[in-house]
Amino acid sequence: MRLLIFGPQGVGKGTQAQLLAPHFGVPHISTGDLFRENIAAGTHLGKQAQAALTAGELVSDGITQAMLADRLREDDARNGFILDGFPRTPEQADWLDAMLIGGAPVDAAIVLTAPYEVLVERALVRGRSDDTTEAIERRLAIYRERTQPLLSFYGSVVETVDADQPVQLVHQDILARVSERTGVL
C-alpha cells in the first residue's frame, strides 16, 4: 500500500498516518521525523538540514529528497509506505513519481480537510513555541498556495475526508475510501 496524506497543519495527518501504518503493515514516513533523525544522528544531510532550519529557512528539496530516497530504500518500505509531509509541491510530486518508476504507483492520496477556525484552534492547542496565531495563518496560506495544486496532480487517486470529526471516525472513513479504491481492507 502506497498512501500519501495531505492536509493543512492541525488537520491530523500524523495521527491518521500512525493509525494506518500498522493496519497496512507499512511504515509511516514523516519528513519532519526524517529531519529530526538525521540531525540527531549527525549525518551529512542532517547537518545541512540543521543549517537551513537554524537560518530560518525551509530544508531544500535536494536534501529532503535525498533523505526520503534513502528511507524508501529500506526493507520495511519495500511493500509500501504512508508519506506524511511529502510531497508539498508539484515539483516534489514529479520527483516522487520518477522515484517510483518501476515500482507500484501511489494507491491513494488522502486529503484531510477541516474548517479554518478548527485548524487554527487545534494548532494553538498543541502548544508548540512556534505555533503563534500569525505563524499558523502564514503556514495555512502557504499550504493553500503551494500544496493544494497537488490535488490536480494526483486527481484520479485523490480521496477527500472530513477531519472535523472524532479521530476514529476519520480513520474509518479513510479505510473505507482506500478499500473502495484498492480492494484492500
In short:
This protein is of the alpha/beta class and 185 residues long. The chain has helices at residues 13-24, 31-41, 44-54, 61-72, 90-100, 116-126, 133-147, 150-153, 167-182, and strands at residues 2-6, 28-30, 81-84, 108-113, 158-162. Helix 1 (13-24) packs across helix 9 (167-182) and helix 2 packs across helix 4 (61-72).
Describe this structure in words.
The chain has helices at 13-24, 31-41, 44-54, 61-72, 90-100, 116-126, 133-147, 150-153, 167-182, and strands at residues 2-6, 28-30, 81-84, 108-113, 158-162. The chain is of the alpha/beta class. Helix content is 56%, strand content 12%. It has nine helices and five strands, in the order E-H-E-H-H-H-E-H-E-H-H-H-E-H. It starts with a strand and ends with a helix. The model has no long low-confidence stretch (mean pLDDT 91). It has two domains: 2-27 and 80-182, 3-Layer(aba) Sandwich (Rossmann fold); 31-73, no CATH class. It is globular, with a radius of gyration of 16 Å. Helix 1 packs across helix 9, helix 2 crosses helix 4 (61-72) and helix 6 (116-126) crosses helix 7. Strands 2-3-1-4-5 form a five-stranded parallel β-sheet, with helices on both faces.
Instruction: Give the count of helical stretches.
Output: 9
| Coarse shape | globular
End-to-end Cα distance: 11 Å
Query: For the largest beta sheet, what order do the strands appear in spatially?
Result: 2-3-1-4-5
Uncertain stretches = none
Look at the helices and sheets and give the structural class: alpha/beta
CATH superfamily of the largest domain, called what?
Answer: P-loop containing nucleotide triphosphate hydrolases
**Order of SSEs:** EHEHHHEHEHHHEH
CATH topology of the largest domain: Rossmann fold
